[in-house]
Amino acid sequence: MDKIRIIEVKESVFSDNNKDADKLRNELKREKTFLLNLMSSPGSGKTTFLKGIASRLKDKINMGVMEADIDSDVDAMAMASCGVRSIQLHTGGMCHLDASMTRQGLEEFGTKDLDLVVLENVGNLVCPAEFDTGSVKNAVILSIPEGHDKPLKYPLMFQVAHALIINKIDVLQYFDFDIEKVKEYALMRNPNLKIFLVSAKTGEGMDEVSSWFEEEVKEWCK
Amino acid sequence: MHELGVVFHTLDTVKRIAEENNVKRVASITVEIGEVSTVIPDLFEDCWNWAVKKETVLKDAGVKIERIPALTYCEDCKKEYGTLEYGKVCPYCGSGRTYLLQGNEIIIKEIEAIE
Questions:
Q1: Residue B69 β-bridge partners
Q2: Cα–Cα distance list, A113 to A70, A78, A131, B101 (Å)
Q3: Within a domain: residue B48?
Q4: What angle do CA A11, A13, A18 make, to 5 degrees?
Q5: Would you call B38 and A126 a contact, using CB atoms and an 8 Å cutoff?
Q6: In this structure, is residue B85 part of a structural domain?
Q7: What's the domain range around A56?
């Protein structure tokens, strides 16, 4: 019979990824590139939101977008059609991006001339929160039709986020969405969360978020 | 599926540790999964059993799963309570100033290597 040797490990499954993510952040700091990890459910308006941000920042910041999806390149095409440098990443069925996938994407994309890269993560409020991508900041978009209880249902997502962007406020009157409640629930999870109310479609509130982007990039790249 | 991604990360970590320890074959691993982690043990096991079929050092390695109970601490009355039962609000004093002590971990506890 074979002899069995027990090797004690006691290591988090995420520890290698976390180290890799820290390394990537250091590289980005040296290169003076700000990486924002943008997460949300499918259909929250990420791509429309990014188009709005891109048009506001285009004369001030060199911006690129990495679109991560399980399949298709519709999002990258949409960004390219409004003049934003973009690349489509396919996750091969995976529900999230990790640090090594992000690094591969950045290398392929070529970020030397970019001050800001937005990683549009796979539409999902669960898995992307679990894996540090190496981003400098995380933002989550929550749209009005999704309901104000999401911070209670997906606590980790709201804990890892630095900014919460509540989108589609132009349709607020048609839904039972309570802005005060969502703020309360989100801040309960994360007291330092910055909260923005926007409509990517009408442009309401978009100047404030784009100023936040600008300040964060300036702070990181100085 | 989230569990599959976590399994792939587990495989990578176990393979690295196996190499560091000169292990030629792994019989099984033990993983501790917190009660409020985002991983469902049954699904983790299914993904693991599927993924190890394609491995060499880890070929057909088993997986044993242990649960870590979720505990929350109340900053106001300094008591601990079960997170699954009571969630974010302290059952003793009704305070919301609480934080999770343990229960969201996914830890590789040990590896059983065949000598």
A1: none
A2: 27, 21, 27, 44
A3: yes
A4: 95
A5: yes
A6: no
A7: 15-221
Are B73 and B29 in contact by the 8 Å Cβ rule? The answer is: no
Q: Is A83 within a domain?
A: yes
What CATH number is associated with residue A104?
3.40.50.300
How many Cα atoms occupy the beta-carbon half-sphere of B67 within 13 Å?
11
CB-based contact A96 B111, cutoff 8 Å: no
Q: Which of chain A's residues have a Cβ under 8 Å away from the Cβ of B17?
A: 7, 9, 11
ipTM over 0.90? The verdict is no
Considering only residues 153 to 192 of chain A, which have any Cβ-Cβ distance to chain B shorter than 8 Å? 156, 188
Instruction: Please indicate, yes or no, if residue B49 is contained in any of the structural domains.
Output: yes
CA dist B50 and B59 (Å) reads: 10
CB contacts under 8 A, A 49-68 vs B, are none
Burial A49-76 (b: 16+ CB within 10 A, else e): bbbbbbebbeeebbbbbbbbbeeeeebb
Strand partners, A88: A67
Tens of pLDDT along chain B (115 residues) come to 588 889 999 999 999 999 999 999 999 999 999 999 889 999 999 999 999 999 999 999 999 999 999 999 999 999 999 999 998 899 999 998 898 999 999 999 999 999 8
